[in-house]
Amino acid sequence: xxxxxxxxxxxxxxxxxxxxxxxxxxxxxxxxxxxxxxxxxxxxxxxxxxxxxxxxxxxxxxxxxxxxxxxxxxxxxxxxxxxxxxxxxxxxxxxxxxxxxxxxxxxxxxxxxxxxxxxxxxxxxxxxxxxxxxxxxxxxxxxxxxxxxxxxxxxxxxxxxxxxxxxxxxxxxxxxxxxxxxxxxxxxxxxxxxxxxxxxxxxxxxxxxxxxxxxxxxxxxxxxxxxxxxxxxxxxxxxxxxxxxxxxxxxxxxxxxxxxxxxxxxxxxxxxxxxxxxxxxxxxxxxxxxxxxxxxxxxxxxxxxxxxxxxxxxxxxxxxxxxxxxxxxxxxxxxxxxxxxxxxxxxxxxxxxxxxxx
Amino acid sequence: xxxxxxxxxxxxxxxxxxxxxxxxxxxxxxxxxxxxxxxxxxxxxxxxxxxxxxxxxxxxxxxxxxxxxxxxxxxxxxxxxxxxxxxxxxxxxxxxxxxxxxxxxxxxxxxxxxxxxxxxxxxxxxxxxxxxxxxxxxxxxxxxxxxxxxxxxxxxxxxxxxxxxxxxxxxxxxxxxxxxxxxxxxxxxxxxxxxxxxxxxxxxxxxxxxxxxxxxxxxxxxxxxxxxxxxxxxxxxxxxxxxxxxxxxxxxxxxxxxxxxxxxxxxxxxxxxxxxxxxxxxxxxxxxxxxxxxxxxxxxxxxxxxxx
Lengths: 358, 308
Prior knowledge:
Distance between the termini of chain B: 56 Å
CATH architecture of chain B: Orthogonal Bundle
Distance between the termini of chain A: 17 Å
Oligomer: heterodimer
Strand content of chain A: under 5%
Strand content of chain B: under 5%
Structural class of chain B: mainly alpha
Helix content of chain B: over 70%
Helix content of chain A: over 70%
CATH architecture of the largest domain in chain A: Orthogonal Bundle
Number of domains of chain B: 1
Order of helices and strands of chain B: HHHHHHHHHHHHH
Shape of chain A: globular
CATH topology of the largest domain in chain A: ABC transporter involved in vitamin B12 uptake, BtuC
Largest interface: A-B, 48 and 48 residues
Radius of gyration of chain A: 23 Å
Number of domains of chain A: 2
Number of helices of chain B: 13
Radius of gyration of chain B: 19 Å
CATH topology of chain B: ABC transporter involved in vitamin B12 uptake, BtuC
Largest sheet of chain B: none
Shape of chain B: globular
Structural class of chain A: mainly alpha
């Protein structure tokens, strides 16, 4: 044999070592990012401390970090439900956009005198329906024809985004906007209230975490989703209706992403814009994956990512360094963590060593 | 009309580079969703090197290396470390986008040096350029475009007429069988993922050097995703990719052109067509199970010899 490296599957890696390897990966990625910044002629210590200051330095900044963690968490939950089933829903970005569209559809058409509670409930329902429809389309094709969902959901993102862009520049353009391509601001009764200074979405996010956790681990449908995710054959043998399970899981997944759209449109942008999803749908795929599809772990990872995004926005203002640093750091962390999985699952050793032992 | 078709070609060239790149990558069984990121990396490095050296050859080289560099990260993670392909690809897009924004920030609004633009300037090819109708559309373009033609032709010959190309097909279709027949599967994957990334980088550089010769952050603007769609649309065939890229390129400028003619069509509705068309094709090809329009069998599956 010419290959001196031997790769064997690990059977027994303690939970502690597993976490240790992951932490090591994160530390390495930050060191790597620091080195890269140094080569660029920037002071990495200053940049990293500014990022921390920017995401947690004052009460307001902490609130802003939470505002960014809300969409990320709820979208990740939606993705977790789909991924549990081994259904590659990478269409969260589009489902968020369509959810925002649904909420706006209500917001622009209710009379301004409608009570806030009624308007918000209607917006919420419409957002969930629109997000769910956007997920249902690829789901039904997957269930009935076996169409590849990865590409399908990916394409649906851009159909949604272009559709909203069309509305923004065309039929829905604000007549009082002086020709500027934007949709009218929501009236007061369409805006989500705040609790403790952050929009009520955070309470909703926590409720969703609990519900999704219970759903996956303690309900029959949740269990069926996991079985379908592991093997279609097993599921079929056990007499499960796979098509129905796929559709249900994706309706939940899309519905959750739809509510993200509602929250972003109502509480953050206070209108609909084509960039409403703001990449959260894609970042959520990564956070869902990093959390190993565990809704509880996912919260912590989403908060950490939100902190990075918020910190990045801050250094742009404070240091004049491009906020893109946070995307680069995000990317690096992910690369390292993705790579570290290998060392958690496999043991790498040199062959001649084994001979000595034998 | 000829002028319009000629601008369709210009709009299609970056798509052609990226599509052929992604197609070669997918033929090796790896779905790299980092196209957008690699294009941005190529765009920014091409621009930076062009701006600082004023040398067209270095410009091309930088774009190739940047795209291939992005692809190398992806290849190492998915081929050697067996990371999930979809997640790794998306991460590469996030990384590449940040990379380009960060490096390009000081250059926002700067223009490509004159001599680089001159080097690539539109030149009519003797004889071919004089053919009525076809000449002005295809053969009175910039030199970067001719590079794309040559690349596309080489890719087609390589994939269908050479032994290595056929081996590549085997790797993508049935990795374990290819491995058993003595093909160095890992090497094939690495090489073709890197070639794919290099071509994506060139596509990005075409945008930042020729199409919009002033640096701006959203220079690629979703074209990477259109390329991912195109690969399916053209059924993994580089020759079809040539026409597909021009078609999708044409769609991306259709609305504007019609508005000039006084017809009120929204560009954004045209922008939806490539994605909708791709969805329809995905649905039909799985429904009909037509052999030549199927993706490589082992696309998206990581290969572990030990776990066969």
